[in-house]
What does this fold into?
Amino acid sequence: MKQELHARVKDQTRRALEQAPPSFQADMLTEECAELILALRHLSRGKVGLRAVIEELADVEIMINTYKEMLGLNDSIEYENIIVQKLDKWDNQLDPE
Ligand SMILES: [Mg+2]
It folds into this structure.
């Protein structure tokens, strides 16, 4: 992500967390995930185009970043380690190159 965009995301995330309680952030993340699921279903049935899926991906990414910021995970080594563990597990399920 470009530095300027990253700074904007961080600033808006901070303001969102000041203005709405954690339960609201959880509700928004849940809703955006549901909208992404629905967009993917509709794409597979030809009811929407790829653009609709991309927009929902952006919404989910924004809310994931907000939720991670709320939990203090955006610069967390522990969180990074969990990502590495998950990638290792996935890597073991893939055929070697
Ligand atoms: Mg959405």
User: Anything to note?
Assistant: The pocket of magnesium ion is lined by residues 32, 35, 56, 59 (CB under 6 Å).
